[in-house]
Design brief:
The protein is an all-beta fold and 131 residues long. The protein has no helices and eleven strands. The strands form two sheets. Strands 2, 4, 5, 6, 9, 10 and 11 form a seven-stranded mixed sheet that branches. It has a four-stranded antiparallel sheet with strand order 1-3-8-7, with no helix packed on it.
């Protein structure tokens, strides 16, 4: 069982930066791929960024590519989302999600972009960008 706790959200001005953290409690965190998703009011939850279980592979949505960076520190059981040049359209609740890299009988998954693939969710943290 893995528990995920996001932190670092807040209210910021457009063009500034924010760093979100997702800290896990539970065993074998280094065996999980981790993704960030976000959901704005009235919209579906959407993929933001993903990092593989060893941190060697990352993937980003087109809307954040070049502005956001995902990274992980397995010693601290934490995944970060560095968000630069924030825009009003980045305003959302941001969720951390984890998926075990290898499920029984399946090949290793390095990154994941679908909420259907999630094993564990965090509770979310609000990011509001004012223009």
């Amino acid at each position: 069982q893995l528990q995920l706790l996001e932190s670092g959200g807040g209210v910021v001005q457009a063009g500034t930066s924010l760093r979100l953290s997702c800290t896990a409690s539970g065993p074998y965190f280094s065996s999980y791929a981790v993704s960030w998703f976000r959901q704005a009011p009235g919209k579906d939850r959407e993929f933001v960024a993903s990092i593989s279980y060893r941190g060697s592979t990352t993937q980003y949505s087109d809307s954040v590519k070049g502005r956001f960076t995902i990274s992980r520190d397995d010693v601290r059981s934490t995944v970060y989302l560095q968000m630069n040049d924030l825009k009003s359209e980045d305003t959302s609740v941001y969720y951390c999600a984890a998926r075990v890299a290898r499920r029984r009988g399946q090949t290793i998954v390095l990154v994941f972009t679908s909420s259907d693939d999630v094993d564990y969710w965090g509770q979310g943290t609000q990011v509001t960008v004012s223009s």
